[in-house]
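call fold target=EcsC family protein
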Amino acid sequence: MPTAPDKRYLREELRPWQQQMQRAPSLFDRLTHHVQARLNGLLPERVHRIITGAIQHMVQGVLAGSGLVTRRPLVGVPFAEREAAAWARIKGWRLAATAEGAATGAGGFLVGLADFPLLLGLKLKLLFELAALYGYDARDYTERLYVLHVLQLAFSSQHTRNLTYQRLAHWPAYRATLPADGTAFDWRTFQQEYRDYLDLAKLAQLLPVIGAPVGAIANYRLLRQLGRTAMNCYRLRHLAELEAATAAVVQ
């Protein structure tokens, strides 16, 4: 392993985030779920099928191959440099997503629908770049599954978030249970949770006049949230690896 991060730094950075990931669903969470169900009813079933189909095909493509993987894992770099590089990439993709949200939001209802698969593609590209920056090879399908779990952790209900966090927190043990063909990821739950989460933030983007600013602001915030989630997931993973290495030396 390259120059190791300080375990105290990792624990301090992770503590509030870990508490948030593991808390029980609140009254607000349950209310939000109810509002989400009402908002879903406003969109025609045909629109739901289009969005669901687009998400399904992209997720299946990620599971089947590594076409979005463009970077090799970063080797021999201090952890602080990885963090700085990760922040730079998050800012870059956040600007790209902001511009994309403004453009599709300004294009009206039908163009606005295209934002869902386009934004998902930007998110996946960001996550693959972050995986490489933290030293993990996303050409391995289990690393692509890890990326999808990070995405699910960022954009899901609190109940699903609790379960996903536990899988990521104990990734080596969970990875050992995965079949060799990469079919273990529950993409049906993923696409439903992802779509429902995004509907709340993005429904107004489909409306005339306000679509462009809503799209820009929503995409900016969503990429920021995803970036922070991913960084914390990799911090958690590095901390677990450090503690496992320390335990092995003691034994």
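return ok
Confidence is low (pLDDT under 50) at residues 106-112. Residues 7-250 form one domain.
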